[in-house]
Amino acid sequence: MKNLNVFELAPADHLVQPEEFEDVQGSTPALAILTDFRRHTPPMVSAQLEATEALEVMLAENVKIKLVVDEHKEFIGVISLDDLSHHNLVLKQMALRIKYDELLVRDLMHPRASISAIDYEQFKHATVGDVVSTMKKAHQEYLLVVDKDAHHIRGVVCARDIANRLHTPVEIEKELTFVDIFFAVKGH
Questions:
Q1: Where are the beta strands (DSSP E) in the chain?
Q2: With 15 labelled, which of 36, 71, 96, 174 sits at a CA distance of 20 to 30 A?
Q3: Which residues contact 123 (CB under 8 A, 6 or more apart)?
């Protein structure tokens, strides 16, 4: 075995964050923006957690999205900071006719069936620009990356995280629903 040199930290040594670097561009391989769950623990939250508590946890951990899991730690959805905004909490509370502090993550999450995925094999050969283009066409702010052969969710990519790494906005237009169209027409 080889001995490695150990030294004391210099006062100028600081903890780096990915956003500090200008190393990601549209032509960068997509794997550069993937947090691979084979190497890193997925950012998870229980579906049974109170929504306000989930918001506190996400803010404390500085994460924008979490994978929602059931009691067996199986993936059942995604929750974002936007989903946990005060506005969304109040709307959901009124819709469900429950107390504000009774709202759970499962009440606000995007269910598994509504989330799009990209095949890991395709993702390995894609660029960041390809991923952004796909997100825009699919109207998805995040996409799961799945190893289809092994049936493993390998990671998740988020438009906000990509925007932070690119140092430029990545705008994903929400796909209009009947309700959106109804309220737009009713307003005129």
A1: 44-46, 65-69, 75-80, 110-111, 117-119, 142-147, 152-158
A2: 36
A3: 30, 31, 34, 131, 145
91 dihedral zone (left: phi>0; alpha: psi -120 to 50; beta): alpha
Measure the CA–CA gap between 47 and 23, rounded to whole angstroms: 36
Contacts of 10 (CB under 8 A, 6+ apart): none
Instruction: Answer yes or no: are the C-beta atoms of 142 and 117 closer than 8 Å.
Output: no
Placement of tokens 């499962």 in the chain: 106
CB-CB contact of 26 with 166 (8 Å): yes
Distances (CA, A) of 47 to 8, 57, 108, 111, 165: 43, 14, 9, 11, 29
**What's the pLDDT tens digit per position in 121-168?**
999 999 999 999 999 999 998 899 999 999 999 999 989 889 988 988
Q: Judging by beta carbons within 10 Å of its beta carbon (0-12, 13-18, 19+), is residue 26 exposed, middle or buried?
A: middle
Would the CA dihedral through 177, 171, 161, 151 be positive or negative?
A: positive
- Specify the DSSP class assigned to residue 1: -
